[in-house]
Design a protein that fits this description.
Layout lengths: L29 E6 L11 H19 L4 E3 L12 H4 L2 E4 L5 E7 L2 H4 L9 H9 L3 E7 L6 E2 L4 E5 H4 L10 H12 L3 E5 L16 E5 L2 E5 L3 H8 L5 E5 L6 E4 L7 E4 L8 E3 L2 E6 L4 H12 L4 E6 L1 H4 L9 E5 L7
Parallel strand pairs: 1-2, 4-5, 7-8, 10-11, 15-16
Antiparallel strand pairs: 1-17, 3-4, 6-7, 9-10, 12-13, 14-15
């Protein structure tokens, strides 16, 4: 992994509000990708599965590092409870001056399902380590819960953003105002889309993903619902295959033992510089999903890597990563 060369940290809000910031699309140039190695023994309760998940993570990091610098947040001396940096790291926005600002949101461990005191501080700690100006917002929001087209349109789910556990009493109007100020979102689409076994209550990065300003991929159970909401906005919706459902038996010593479905989704791919990295689950549909991604990204290499053991923890490649857009505020 590569060393960081941060500039001087300067706290404070972005230069202006209400459309003065822009939340870039994931396909835009990236300076770096942040990761965190699987480590939590409740998330991967069987040691052999944890070790296998770490091997899959090593392959993911290697594939990213061939095209984009990679930094484990541990290298920044940022402690974590779990590996899902997509949900704990900042969302980086571009300001009117062309720099970057780290928007940090309240992390509630998916509605206080777990007590993750370290993860609640990852966002501000990463921003401070980078020297990127940051703001900590009272809104409970995980990075996996929101998708941006880079031009003011965002997709999320009401089950995550308007969740009473995450954001008690929050109205849609107040949610939209908060996202307009923090991320420059002008149009918010809330879908009803969640996979069985998804402990996040319906993160959008498991179901509907922007692949361009005017196009998304949606896993097959949610294609028609996505089309009804997005096509009137001029956004095309293409179908992404759904992986075959499968289950995992958690041992008696974890908080929720027994056999549970796993949220296997091809939508949890990672877009980085010149490459898209697709999780594979050892199913015939792996090849079908790769074919769809090649059509969606004709100018990028599609790399397929095993993710079956990572999935035991409840997520996949997108959940384990957070991109840092290219910006003038830092030197990556």
């Amino acid at each position: 992994m590569n060393e960081m060369n941060p500039s001087t940290h300067a706290a404070g809000k972005p230069e202006a509000k209400g459309g003065a910031v822009r939340f870039p699309g994931e396909w835009e140039p990236q300076a770096r990708v942040f990761v965190s190695r699987p480590n939590h023994h409740e998330t991967w309760p069987i040691e052999a599965d944890l070790e296998a998940a770490r091997r899959e993570w090593d392959a993911l990091v290697e594939a990213i590092g061939e095209v984009t610098p990679v930094t484990d947040v541990a290298e920044l001396e940022v402690p974590v409870d779990d590996a899902w940096v997509r949900d704990t790291a900042p969302l980086f926005v571009e300001t009117t001056g062309g720099g970057l600002h780290a928007q940090c949101f309240k992390f509630t461990a998916y509605g206080y399902k777990w007590e993750y005191e370290r993860d609640a501080k990852v966002g501000t700690s990463v921003a401070a380590a980078l020297g990127v100006p940051s703001t900590l917002h009272p809104l409970g929001l995980e990075g996996g819960a929101i998708e941006s087209n880079g031009r003011g349109v965002a997709i999320s789910t009401a089950a995550c953003t308007l969740d009473e556990a995450r954001n008690p009493g929050l109205s849609r109007d107040r949610l939209e105002a908060a996202l307009a100020e923090s991320l420059g979102i002008e149009t918010l689409v809330l879908l009803d889309a969640a996979l069985p076994g998804d402990h996040t209550d319906g993160h959008i990065d498991n179901t509907v993903r922007f692949v361009a300003e005017d196009r998304v991929l949606a896993v097959e159970p949610f294609v028609e619902a996505a089309r009804a909401e997005l096509e009137p906005l001029g956004i095309a919706v293409d179908a992404l295959p759904m992986a075959e459902p499968w289950e995992y038996t958690y041992p008696p010593h974890v908080p929720d033992p027994g056999t549970h479905p796993l949220p296997a989704s091809y939508a949890n791919f990672l877009i980085t510089n010149g490459r898209v990295i697709l999780p594979a689950y050892g199913q015939p549909t792996d090849a079908d999903a790769a074919s769809v991604l090649r059509k969606a990204f004709p100018d990028r290499e599609v790399v397929t890597l095993p993710a079956r053991h990572i999935l035991i923890g409840g997520g996949s490649f997108h959940c384990l990563t957070m991109q840092l857009p290219v910006g003038s505020t830092i030197r990556a």
